[in-house]
Amino acid sequence: MARLDLHGIHKEFGEVTALAELSLEVESGELVSLLGPSGCGKTTALRIVAGFEQPTRGELLVDGSDVIPVPASKRNMGMVFQAYSLFPNMTARQNVEFGLRMRKVARDKCRARAAELLELVGLAARVDNYPHELSGGQQQRVALARALAIEPAILLLDEPLSALDAKVRVDLRQQIRHVQQRLGITTLYVTHDQEEALSISDRIAVMSDGNLEQVGAPAEIYRSPHTEFVANFVGLMNGFDGRVQAADMVTIGSSERPIGVHEGHGCTAGGRVLVLIRPESVQLEELVDGAAVPDGAFEGKVLMHTFLGSVTRMNLSSDVGDLVADVPSLRALTMPPDTRVGVRVDPAGVKLLAR
Ligand SMILES: Nc1ncnc2c1ncn2[C@@H]1O[C@H](COP(=O)(O)OP(=O)(O)O)[C@@H](O)[C@H]1O
Ligand SMILES: [Mg+2]
Questions:
Q1: Distance 35 CA to ligand 2 centre (A)
Q2: Is the pTM higher than 0.85?
């Protein structure tokens, strides 16, 4: 079991700052995701940890020891890449055995270890297949087994699911998590897919443009984003200019009708804020035949439905501007486009950021 520490890891490629003083700790046995859009520095961070790239400055510690001077081949890390990284002329078993052979492990031990790992990733029946005889998902499971074969202290995965189709992605991410927890292996997992990061991680490190925006457990990142970037990158978010009226009250835009917020948001009364509201926290009620807008609600009109399965995403215009609401699909059927609605917001789903 190993603990990984990045302290002020900085990386410049010529004029480009790929990483700006990245500091992050991964506890022993923990899975931390680096989540951010393309180009934000995720792969660079992973390659520096693996030893394929040297940082411009900064410290990298495994169990408290500096590993910057240690070459990649001696760092004892297993790596899984995006896709197509298996040796095409070797069977699944030979691919998994490869690292062990390089380390001069005895032939029968190699065999036993490869069999064990291919079984762990559910491929016991495919040991003698070549990569071209395996599906994309199966190939990535072989890649995972190959990375684990050398019993690495740390597992590094760089968008391992991005080349696979949706259903396989979901199955395989669960399997990766299962194997990771079963072995208790310290893991750094790179993805640009927020749903993937939310579902697989102990903690998520959200990155933007070489900077670390926020680190936290998935639910914390989702419920309590610290920056506008995190709020918008992790899940869909409604955002409005607002003003704090009282500890538990804000107004949005030019509307006079306050909406309730939970206290403890830390923004001062009178101050300008960004009011963030998750689509699932928007509650709608149909207003029949010119009915008055109820207390605590504001008026809206349904513009469009997008059916997403269990929920329907509804675009609305309202007194305070356009917004998006996720409504259980059965309930959405009663509010087709053009329906006049009262809009309420669950105070627990409102987050304020000082402007
Ligand atoms: N070898 C390199 N030479 C020059 N620029 C690079 C190199 N590798 C990455 N970069 C730049 O560093 C930034 C971060 O890239 P990368 O780490 O690949 O991001 P991500 O994996 O998040 O998409 C990008 O602007 C990219 O163009
Ligand atoms: Mg990348």
A1: 10
A2: yes
